[in-house]
Automatic annotation (TrEMBL):
GO terms for molecular function: sequence-specific DNA binding. GO terms for biological process: regulation of DNA-templated transcription. The lineage of its organism: Bacteria, Pseudomonadati, Pseudomonadota, Gammaproteobacteria, Salinisphaerales. This is Putative Fis-like DNA-binding protein. Keywords: DNA-binding. Residues 43-83 form the DNA binding HTH domain. Gene3D superfamilies: Homeodomain-like. SUPFAM superfamilies: Homeodomain-like. Pfam families: HTH_8 (PF02954).
């Protein structure tokens, strides 16, 4: 059994995990200068695994993945190219 499956009974909303990750990130800065493009950095860190997992879930079917994501297939393809996932 995967650890994630074992933890499902204690699952929190995704925002909880994102917030906890950001807290750890800020703590790890340890007084150094914060990044200047945090918004872009966070989106890229979340978007790539999101696209990978949704495509995997849909067995590579881009039309189904785009529908699941709520974006059109052209937008999905553009995003896949930007992450070299095509």
């Amino acid at each position: 059994m995967r650890q994630a499956d074992a933890d499902d009974d204690n699952a929190q909303p995704l925002s909880h995990y994102v917030g906890a990750s950001l807290d750890r990130y800020f703590e790890s800065l340890n007084g150094s200068a914060p990044p200047t493009d945090l918004y872009r950095m966070v989106l890229e860190q979340v978007e790539r695994p999101l696209l990978e997992r949704v495509l995997e879930y849909n067995r590579g079917n881009q039309s189904k993945a785009a529908t699941m994501l709520g974006i059109n297939r052209g937008t999905l393809r553009k995003k896949l190219r930007s992450y070299n996932l095509d």
